[in-house]
Amino acid sequence: MSELTFEQMLEESLKTIHTGEVVEGTVIDVKPEEIVLNIGYKCDGILTRNEYTNEPNVDLTTVAKPGDTMEVKVLKVNDGEGQVILTYKRLAADRGNKRIEEAFNSREVLTAKVAQVLDGGLSVIVDEIRIFIPASLVSDVYEKDLTKYAGQEIQFVISEYNPKRRRYIGDRKQLLLAEKAEMQRKLLESIQVGDVVEGVVKNVTDFGAFIDIGGADGLLHISEMSWGRVENPRKVFKVGDQVKAFIKEISGTRIALSLKFEDANPWKGADEKYAIGNEVTGKVARMTDFGAFIELEPGVDALLHVSQISRERIEKPSDVLKVGQEVTAKVVDFNSEDKKISLSIKALLTAEAPAPVEEEAAETDDSEPAAAEAENAAAEETVEE
User: Which domain holds residue 237?
Assistant: First the structure.
């Protein structure tokens, strides 16, 4: 570097700078905590780490090197030791304010790395402007723990801009909602009733499971989880399970799913398998006062009326049967339209001796209204299922 002429040195000695002035300097020395710049003044300028960035523990030797030029703002002309104190972050903040204002007015989507995870949300920095994203605006679902976002790049929009109060609020939630709405729209345009779809279990409740099928959630109701009886969806599915189902119904944005594929319908061929007079074996699934429901196979239950359990009079099925017990009986009625089957153990029993006329008549009188009542109750239970 050539030496300065007398005229140049004289000119520099007469040069003045003012607080708040923006100047261009050349880096002449860099330390981890400060940068020294030649700003064309009689004194060099000092740019400390705290005045370079808001990010903590930045090693300045990684961001500047001798010979680099940079624009800075004069913070103090004389710090008492004859040095000029400079700031880069405040100049960047001035420019950042304008940048954030433009983004706020245009609804521009910004991208920034999460600088800090706070109790109430996230903090990100854009052009030295610290923006706060409240926990309620971080996601479209409630998230108690936000630590997973530490150091991640996220997208958001500015929902509140108030430079006088230094209040800059970001919103990530509305972007996620808009993205999901668009995915849902595209999905609804591409699917129809009967389509087989694959998805992931997102949530499980007492009445069913919600399946994310890529753009929208479909409800797999407990009654559609199997041809058989499902007592508790949580025993069948858990969050994260992969599921293949078919679309049973679409109503607006609501999608109903089903796993009751027709090719697995247990009632196909049931008229032959469970024809009247056939001997069948099943397990007691549940009991009522009027009878026991026997599961012949998943999805096919038959009613064993209390009057058909034994030749002897029985008050209630639980007196002689228990849930899970295997029983063999004869089919005495089959209704394919209503999917009802009636069984009788008594019909299999060989009468050792004819019952007294009085008792037989009494039993007949009692069983006929009871059987009618059982038919009605069984019909109601079928509707509920």
Answer: 191-263
